[in-house]
Amino acid sequence: MLTFLMIRGTEPSKDNSIGPEKFSPSLGLKKRKESTQKKTHPDQNSSDSYHDSEIQELMDQLGVRVPSHDQLENYIEKSGNNVEALIAAGVILNDSSYFIRALENNPNDAHALFCLALNESTESAAKIDLAKKLLKDQPDNATASYLLASLQAESGNIDESIDTLLGSFEQKGYDDFYNQTSLKVEDALRGTGSSESGSTLYSLWNVPVPILAKINGIAKTVMELVPQSDPQRAQELRSLVASIGANVSNENTSIINELVGLAAQIKSLEGMDNDSVSHFENLSVQEARNSLEQRKSSIRNLTLFGPNDLISMDSALIESYMNRIRAVGEYEATRWLNQRTKRPLPRNK
């Protein structure tokens, strides 16, 4: 059984454990999208670097038809210019103007604020204003603090960034809008002619998660500030990075969340003697590192399913797999599918 780690300096009631999580063949795809915010469209041609013929074949088999601009505009009109329909269109078309339209409909919509603050086309100052508004609207959402802190650091305001992050110790939630976004993209695909199972698969594989790149960057920035001459301050900053990592790891969506979270927690131990007391409750530095590395290995060793594997499966089995991803996370869903297909499971050390 994996060790459960409680981080010193965090809210004791929070679940900061390294618990069972998730995995899916979307891992490689999502990694590419973190920094680019591009999405793999099944109807793109082979000149697109994100095009994959196996993925296209699978999407065709499952009845996915990525809607055009006109089809999405018709869908939005039928929805009564619903904010979530606008956001879904913006994600599918990678067009930030839809996020702006969503905010014109509802200036305080947290989902639209989040999407526009992360979009590459938004000006830096506007991103910070949007992130501040998001944090004000969702004061208990640590994701809002991480987003604002990363943008402040990118603009050179390191002290403000650290102050923002320190406020996250008091926040009790983490919502990166991934589930909400994927569900609305799924609705839009179904509403424009795609099959139910295909819409689910597409929405889980093609929703970008750029916030993770921001979180990874801010964790590195904080660790660069850890002083050697001030043990108390060093402990505070290390605990902060570990807390960020634990929050991200515990988000039950993509395996990318857990890998980014584990990386931050492991990074928080850098520069410490192996036999010294860590900022993880009742564990030495070496014990904490070993537990984190074991969990990382269990993820890396999980037998994956690529598009070619799924093509040969019954559509009902694929749909059940996708539903389990939403219910229990990618790691556990893939373990279940491995058992159904008699593929080996990773050993828990």
Quickly describe the structure.
The chain has 349 residues and is mostly helical.
Q: What features would you highlight for this structure?
A:
349 residues; mainly alpha; Serine Threonine Protein Phosphatase 5, Tetratricopeptide repeat; 18 helices; 61% helix; 0% strand; flat; disordered N terminus
Describe the structure.
Helix 12 runs antiparallel to helix 13. 61% of the residues lie in helices and 0% in strands. It is built from 18 helices and no strands. The protein is flat, with a radius of gyration of 21 Å. The protein starts with 25 loop residues before the first helix and ends in a 9-residue tail after the last helix. The longest helix has 19 residues, at 231-249. With 349 residues, the protein is mostly helical.
Computed CA radius of gyration, to the nearest angstrom: 21 Å
Which blocks of ≥5 consecutive residues have pLDDT under 50? Answer: 1-50
Mass-distribution shape = flat
* Count of separate structural domains: 2
Q: Structural class, please?
A: mainly alpha
Beta-strand fraction estimate: under 5%
Number of helices: 18
Span of the ends, CA to CA: 7 Å
Largest sheet: none
| Order of helix and strand elements from N to C terminus | HHHHHHHHHHHHHHHHHH
Total beta-strand segments: 0
Helix content: 55-70%
**Integer average pLDDT:** 84
